[in-house]
Design a protein that fits this description.
The protein is α+β, with helices and mostly antiparallel strands. The chain contains 4 helices and 11 strands; from the N terminus they run H-E-H-E-H-E-H-E-E-E-E-E-E-E-E. The strands form 2 sheets. A 7-stranded antiparallel β-sheet has the order 1-9-6-11-4-3-2, with helices on one face. Strands 5-10-7-8 form a 4-stranded antiparallel β-sheet, with no helix packed on it. 31% of the residues are buried. It binds N-oxalylglycine and manganese (II) ion. N-oxalylglycine (OGA) binds next to strand 10 and strand 11.
Length: 216
C-alpha cells in the first residue's frame, strides 16, 4: 500500500518553535514551512530584478556609506498581491495566533521583506529592537538558498549575553529561525555567493506599546 506523503503537523511545528523560544530565546528549524511555499518564494525572489530592491537602512542612519559598512543587503517588502508572498504571510498569521495561545506574547501583526546579499555582503552584529523603543517583539528569518555549503559563508551567528556564539546557522533553503528581537544579538557573516532570505517581525500594537493590559 502506498503511504501518504508526510505532511508536517502544523501544531507539532508550532510546539517545537514555542518550546525552544521559551527555553532559549531563539529557535532554529530546518524544513519548517511546506516545501511548496519555500519553492514559490525562491522562484519569486529570483524573478525580482535589482530595480525591485533598495538598500536596507540602519535605524535612523541616513548616510549611505555608513549604512553599507554595517549591512550590505538590499530589500523588497512583501505585499499580499503576490501569491507566494501571501502564502507565506498566511502561514505567519497562523504562527502568530499559535504563539499568542502558547506564550501569551500579545503579537499584533507581522511585516517582512526579501533580503538579497550579493557576494561579499554581510550584516554586522546587532539587535533588531531596542528595549522600549520599538514594537518589534519577535524576529523571523526564512532562508531560500539551495545547497548552501559551509564554505559559502553567510552564516547567521547568534550570540548569548556573554558575547559567545551559541549558534551558527547555514542559510539553507527551508530553514526558519525565530528569536526575541530585543534580547538576541546576531550577525550575518560575509556571504561568498548570492544569499536570499525573508526577514520579518511580529509586533505588538503600537497604540498601546508593550502594555498588553489596557489602562484602567
Ligand atoms: C535582519 C537580519 C539575518 C539573516 O535582517 O535584521 O538579521 O540571516 N537578517 O538574513
Ligand atoms: Mn537582524
Amino acid at each position: 500500500m502506498l503511504s501518504q506523503p508526510s505532511v508536517p503537523d502544523l501544531d507539532a511545528t508550532f510546539d517545537r518553535l514555542a518550546d525552544a523560544l521559551s527555553a532559549r530565546g531563539y529557535a532554529v528549524l530546518p524544513a519548517a514551512l511546506p516545501g511548496e511555499i519555500a519553492e514559490q518564494l525562491q522562484r519569486r525572489v529570483a524573478t525580482l530584478g535589482d530595480s525591485a530592491f533598495r538598500p536596507a537602512g540602519v535605524g535612523r542612519q541616513q548616510d549611505y556609506q555608513k549604512n553599507r559598512a554595517v549591512r550590505g543587503d538590499d530589500i523588497h517588502w512583501f505585499t499580499a498581491g503576490d501569491h507566494s508572498e501571501s502564502a507565506y504571510l498566511a502561514w505567519m498569521e497562523q504562527f502568530r495566533q499559535a504563539l499568542n495561545r502558547r506564550l501569551f506574547l500579545g503579537l499584533f501583526d507581522y511585516e517582512c521583506h526579501f533580503a538579497r546579499y550579493a557576494a561579499g555582503s554581510y550584516y554586522k552584529k546587532h539587535l533588531d529592537a531596542f528595549r522600549g523603543r520599538s514594537n518589534r517583539v519577535l524576529s523571523t528569518v526564512f532562508y531560500l538558498n539551495e545547497g548552501w555549503a559551509a564554505a559559502d559563508g553567510g552564516q547567521l551567528l547568534i550570540y548569548n549575553d556573554s558575547d559567545e556564539v551559541v549558534a551558527s546557522v547555514n542559510p539553507e533553503m527551508g530553514t526558519l529561525v525565530v528569536f526575541l528581537s530585543e534580547n538576541v544579538p546576531h550577525e550575518v557573516a560575509v556571504a561568498h555567493r548570492q544569499r536570499h532570505s525573508v526577514a520579518g517581525w511580529f509586533r505588538v500594537n503600537a497604540s498601546i506599546g508593550a502594555h498588553i493590559d489596557p489602562p484602567l
